[in-house]
Specification:
By secondary structure, the chain is α+β, with helices and mostly antiparallel strands. The protein is built from five helices and 18 strands. The chain has an 18-stranded mixed beta sheet that branches.
Length: about 300
């Protein structure tokens, strides 16, 4: 496990190290009442936000926890309110194994914003600004563009072209959907900018995901991510995403941003800005990779007791 504990918080550069971040100690996982009081194990955690996409990094290997414990740690009401958990393990000086679990406690597919946080963690521990992240059978290059404030990017390759699907559903504000696999499966629907902010994205996700997921070339058993997008300026696009595994809208989604970039590349756009509800991302094409870049910050660290 990779958990630098003597390093400053993201965006901070001077000691004292740990005391410069907010702390939180929570007791929300209960044990049965017994005649004796037994101390509950404690987990040290760090919480990061990558343009509103939030992740927990634990000092304990999440694989050693049950899926229910992982879910409760991420829970938006009872827990630490995170979209997922990350684990980073060094393989050699500049290569790291990256694992990811969704907020539902189950292993997830590749997460672009999570990989940007991993690039920061690797920099904390090694001082290297360029590393390789191995996720499953694939390797993703990642770079730290700025340590203060932290800005990181990760390169993704997309082997299959976007697949256009006509929509014939009534009361859906789009006539077509685009299916893209960026390491995570996505469906993107274009809408007018005036409609984007008012869409009930959760209601549309419940309706459209069961219809669209089987149409992907490799139909995912756990469904797909659903996004709506609209132009908001020159080479600028607003994007909202309902993420599988979180089963809710997140404030930004990195792989959805890359999926949109692959779609727009066919129209001659090699660099775009993404305006998500949690902040701004950029995606640019460089060779056969799409580079996802944006800010990140550590927002919380502390300990949590669990059973």
């Amino acid at each position: 496990m990779y958990y630098p504990s003597k390093m400053p918080c993201a965006g901070r550069s001077s000691p004292p190290y740990v005391d410069m971040c907010p702390r939180l100690t929570l007791l929300f996982l209960r044990v049965p009442c017994t005649s004796r009081a037994y101390p509950m194990p404690k987990i040290s955690f760090r919480k990061f936000s990558a343009t509103g996409n939030t992740f927990l990094v634990l000092q304990t290997d999440p694989d050693l926890l049950s899926s229910e414990t992982r879910r409760r740690l991420c829970d938006r009401t009872e827990g630490l309110s995170a979209d997922g958990l990350l684990a980073l393990t060094p393989l050699d000086e500049a290569t790291f194994d990256l694992r990811y679990w969704n907020a539902d406690g189950e292993p997830g597919s590749f997460c672009g914003n999570g990989a940007r946080v991993a690039a920061w963690l690797a920099y904390e521990g090694t001082g290297l600004r360029e590393v390789q992240l191995r996720f499953g059978q694939r390797v993703y290059p990642a770079r730290l563009l700025s340590p203060a404030p932290p800005i990181a990017e990760v390169g993704l390759s997309v082997s299959q072209p976007p697949q256009k699907i006509p929509l014939r559903f009534s009361q859906v504000p789009a006539q077509e959907a685009w299916l893209v696999d960026t390491g995570s499966p996505h469906a993107l629907l274009p809408v007018e900018a005036a409609l984007l902010d008012t869409l009930d994205i959760t209601a549309y996700a419940h309706r459209l995901i069961p219809e669209l997921a089987p149409l992907m070339q490799q139909a995912p058993e756990k469904g797909i991510n659903l996004s709506f997008f609209a132009p908001v300026g020159q080479k600028a696009w607003a994007l909202r995403t309902y993420e599988r595994g979180v089963w809710a809208e997140t404030l930004s989604c990195g792989t959805a941003s890359v999926a949109l970039a692959t779609l727009l590349q066919a129209e001659g756009e090699s660099r775009i800005e993404i305006q998500a509800r949690g902040g701004q991302l950029t995606v640019h094409a460089e060779g056969d990779l799409f580079w996802l870049a944006g800010p990140l910050q550590e927002v919380l660290r502390g300990t949590v007791e669990w059973s």
